[in-house]
Specification:
By secondary structure, the protein is mainly beta. Helices cover 10% and strands 43% of the residues.
């Protein structure tokens, strides 16, 4: 075959494929210039992770944005932190459904990821002393829920709190 015949043949094939089937879309197959074109299949699923398929009409699950009840409450680093009459309770951590309250800063939950029945990781948006920042923390309940361990990602630090008695 000469070059003059090859180029028109390639263009004819390319145009036929780009223009789609020459007949109605209700037919299962259409033939154009010797090329068989099948209509597109309707797909109602989306792959979100290897091996995991969800219906495209179902919205993706949202990450929880609240602390579970077992984590909520007042937590102190020492007994004085739990005394509500004291103004110097710098080790007091108050956990509410949607955030944390420290002596000089506050944090709002962005997302929470459950790690286990007694552990979670939280993306937090902090504000305090005229500054704002984001941080990731891991929270773990131990001693049957009497102790809360908080581990900060950056700067790396760990804190231990005891559950304050009900006021």
């Amino acid at each position: 075959m000469t070059k003059k015949l090859i180029i028109p043949a390639i263009l004819t094939c390319a145009l036929a494929a780009c223009n789609g089937p020459a007949t109605s879309s209700n037919e299962s197959d259409a033939t154009s210039n010797g090329i068989t074109v099948k209509p597109a299949e309707t797909v109602n699923e989306t792959t979100v992770a290897p091996g995991k398929v969800v219906d495209a009409k179902t919205p993706a699950p949202k990450s929880p944005t609240t602390f579970p009840a077992a984590f909520q409450g007042r937590w102190g680093m020492n007994a004085n932190d739990c005394d509500p009459r004291r103004d110097d309770n710098k080790g007091l951590l108050t956990v509410s459904a949607d955030g944390l309250k420290f002596y000089e800063s506050r944090a709002k939950v962005v997302t929470i990821t459950t790690i286990s029945d007694t552990g979670l990781a939280a993306d937090l948006s902090f504000s305090g002393e005229g500054q704002t920042w984001n941080s990731k923390s891991v929270f773990q309940l131990v001693d049957g829920g009497k102790t809360l361990l908080r581990t900060e990602e950056e700067p790396a630090a760990s804190y231990r709190y005891a559950k304050c008695p009900a006021a």
